[in-house]
Specification:
alpha+beta; seven-stranded mixed sheet; five-stranded mixed sheet; 30 strands
Length: about 775
């Protein structure tokens, strides 16, 4: 399916064109939700529960309601009369249905659960009034650990359920029992992929306004999915979708955590509808730590049946996913689907259980299940190499899916589009000069230094669903592209303009890309899952080619030749064999909108809309190598070198690709080294601010050497694959494997993330017999 336009000279695609709109953002001219100003706007502040599990006995707003400037105090019972509940329906058995209102009506299920909202003339009055709202609770036993939540005696979050299990799904393929029967070794691991927070610059925010003249409800929201949010708001409030408009202005980071339909966004819309005035809610940072969906949080059990040469004969995986409260997200099922990753393992048994606990709901976070799969597999590959005293690179090569096996159907049923994992690994090893690096490591170890080399080869599936684009040529020849995806930092405003400019042979500056407003864009899905360019970009390409072909037909009439004799190149249409007979693209555009109609009786206008649905997902992949040194006296880890070789197919804009890789690595290495959301046993969060939760700082970020192999996807006309999740997928296992390799001479073969200096120091002390725990 991958093809290039034969008549166009590429001026922009493949070049590192500077991002459109960066000057506006770096100069402070960006427009985020909190920058949108409407006259008469009210401010909402949510009262949240201090208990992880409790019955709401009473809510007394008597001291808050009379305060000057307070417009309303709304409780869960009030909200239940204003809207329909939001529903979550797990996609796998037993198919529980979770219904909730934006405010709890009878019980709270996590610390930070919303119980009331104060609406006032200004945010300061709202905060003062919220402190006067008295809520009486009857605390209930809480459960935080997902394994404890599986126990028959565990407190139930939903009393009408027989357990806390929201879903329980098993995949079995081949003969895993036979594989274990003939295995030379059985290698087992228990891994924890800890809970993390997205730590975006802009917390969640929403502003809603009902136009009194038309009744249209407009919601400005910091979201990745405007059309999805519009549908959710319309359904909850009983409105037709055409009566709801959602706009996502500039978004200060999202990383998957701003996907879906947040209850607070629906609440703001309901309040604006009820009060007849604009209502704004902007989350505070401390509120964000409590109430924004967290990511990851899996316990992973692996058993591998292994031959003496390191070949994995069979694999058993048992995943326990901590869903938190309310949100039965099926992120962990994506981990299950990627249980074999880039490896040819056909005898497989995988089980995944989603478990409810009295913690903040979890959901998607940059990779959403696929980084968790890569982490467990790459930890396993190193464990196999260690057990059998083999080189980790050789173990991986021995198990790779061969390059000539694609399209390849994995044991979980997923169809891999294309891949050449050995080539990516070989390129990474070449760039670090692996043999020399190993020799230097041996010298360092002889001198008593703790130096480690970590490998990780990952693949993931990306690009789910379909999406849309409209390409409209104006009479001047300028082009406006509207897209159903919702870019918020990825750079599609630039890459889409590059695609259109090259296809039409016009200047990049003549192309404007508009998105993230349901009133002006075609129905779309949004931006997440590394789908923006492979699906949204393909829709743009196909719509542009339709426009170009119509322009060619118009040009043929204007030049009085057959259509097949017209060639398009460099912004003009010329007669084949007679290049002096040519007409510009701008002239064709003017003719398309002539008052008397387009030439040749063609339909006036020059625009096209395309909806693109790929035949399958793309499978980006890569090989990362980390080199670290551990200080044995402090446990501090220094990343001395990091090489990332990624394959996302052809790169439309190499600079943007590099930015995605490095940005993802900042989050991936942050998870590996220092990030973790922690609760005490009673359900109280211990990491509820940046004083306690530590994203990677710029000073701690290593210099990343990036490189790429190119393996086009046959599943879209651009041949591209996603790259936004490369760093969070390849980074954690590469770094953890490097640290464990550094600590191997001390007999330390396992540590869970994050590898904080105190955790590593305690492991070193314990291994040396000086006390401490690992």
């Amino acid at each position: 399916m991958h093809e290039a336009s034969p008549t166009q000279r590429r001026r922009y695609v493949g070049r590192s064109v500077r991002r459109v709109g960066d000057r506006r953002l770096v100069s402070g001219a960006g427009r985020f939700v909190d920058d949108v100003r409407l006259p008469g706007t009210l401010h909402a502040l949510i009262v949240r529960s201090p208990h992880p599990h409790a019955v709401i006995r009473a809510i007394d707003a008597g001291a808050a309601t009379p305060m000057p400037g307070v417009v309303a105090v709304v409780t869960g019972q009030d909200v239940a009369s204003m809207m329909q509940p939001l529903e979550t329906r797990p996609e796998v058995p037993p198919g529980r249905v979770l219904r909730r209102y934006p405010l709890a009506t009878d019980r709270v299920l996590f610390t930070g659960d919303a119980v009331a909202v104060v609406v006032a003339e200004d945010p300061y009055t709202a905060r003062d009034a919220a402190e006067r709202v008295e809520v009486a609770y009857d605390p209930l036993p809480a459960v935080v650990d997902p394994q404890q939540a599986l126990e028959p005696t565990a407190p139930l979050l939903y009393p009408d359920w027989d357990s806390n299990v929201a879903y329980d799904w098993t995949i079995e393929h081949g003969d895993p029992d036979g594989a274990f029967a003939r295995a030379a070794r059985v290698i087992s691991l228990r891994l924890v992929n800890q809970r993390v927070y997205a730590a975006f610059v802009e917390p969640r925010a929403a502003l809603a306004h009902v136009d009194p003249a038309t009744g249209e409800l407009t919601v400005w929201a910091s979201t990745q999915v405007p059309h999805t949010l519009r549908g959710g708001i319309a359904a909850a409030l009983g409105l037709p979708e055409h009566a709801v408009r959602v706009i996502a202005p500039d978004v200060g980071g999202a990383f998957g955590s701003k996907g879906g339909i947040y209850p607070e966004y629906v609440l703001v819309a309901a309040l604006a509808q009820r009060l007849g005035r604009p209502v704004r809610w902007t989350e505070t940072r401390s509120e964000s730590f409590l109430a924004t969906n967290h990511g990851r949080d899996q316990i992973q059990y692996l058993r591998a049946a292994v031959a003496e040469d390191g070949t994995v004969l069979g694999l058993e995986v048992d995943l326990i996913s901590n869903l938190g409260a309310y949100n039965a997200a099926t992120v962990a099922t994506r981990t299950a689907l990627m249980s074999t990753g880039p490896y040819r393992i056909q005898d497989l048994r995988t089980r995944v259980r989603g478990v409810m606990t009295n913690t903040t709901p979890t959901g998607a976070y940059r990779g959403a299940g696929r980084p968790e799969a890569a982490y467990m597999l790459e930890r396993l590959m190193d464990a196999i190499a260690r057990e059998l005293k083999l080189d980790p690179a050789d173990v991986r090569r021995r198990n790779f899916i061969p390059a000539d096996a694609f399209p390849y159907t994995g044991a979980t049923g997923v169809v891999y589009d294309s891949g050449d994992y050995a080539r990516a690994l070989d390129e990474a090893l070449r760039r670090v000069d692996y043999a020399r690096l190993q020799a230097e490591q041996a010298e360092a170890r002889a001198a008593g230094r703790l130096v480690g080399i970590g490998l990780a080869v990952y693949c993931e599936f990306a690009g789910p669903g379909w999406d849309s684009a409209t390409v409209r040529v104006l009479p001047s020849g300028a082009v406006v592209v509207t897209t159903g995806i919702s870019p918020h930092g990825q750079g599609e405003e630039t890459t889409f303009a590059q695609l259109v400019a090259d296809e039409l042979g016009i200047d990049l500056e003549a192309v404007t890309v508009r998105a993230s407003d349901t009133a002006i864009t075609p129905q779309g899905i949004g931006t997440f899952g590394s789908r923006g360019t492979s699906i949204g970009g393909s829709a743009v390409l196909l719509a542009t080619r339709q426009v170009r072909e119509k322009a060619r037909r118009i040009a043929a009439h204007m030049l009085e030749v057959a259509e097949e004799d017209v060639i398009a190149a460099d912004g003009q249409f010329a007669v084949r064999g007679a290049p002096d007979r040519a007409i510009s693209f701008a002239a064709v555009a003017r003719a398309a909108y002539a008052f008397t109609g387009a030439p040749g009786g063609l339909e006036p206008g020059l625009e096209a809309t395309s909806y693109f649905m790929p035949q399958g997902r793309t499978f980006p992949f890569g090989a990362h190598i980390a080199v670290v040194e551990v200080d044995p006296t402090t446990g501090r880890i220094t990343v001395t070198r990091y090489v990332a070789v990624d394959d996302c197919g052809p790169r439309i804009n190499p600079q943007l690709v590099e930015g995605q890789v490095v940005g993802g690595l900042a989050q991936g290495l942050g998870q590996a080294l220092q990030e973790a959301i922690i609760y005490d046993r009673s359900g109280q969060p211990l990491t509820a601010s940046f004083l306690d939760y530590g994203p990677l700082r710029a000073a701690h970020m290593p210099t990343v050497e990036t490189a790429h192999t190119v393996t086009p996807s046959p599943f879209n006309p651009l041949g591209v694959k996603g790259v936004g999740e490369a760093g969070t997928t390849g980074g954690p296992p590469a770094l953890v494997n490097a640290v464990l390799d550094a600590l191997a001479p001390l007999g330390i073969c396992h540590l869970d993330m994050p590898l904080t200096a105190p955790r590593v120091w305690r492991a070193i002390r314990s291994a040396s017999g000086d006390g401490g725990t690992g």
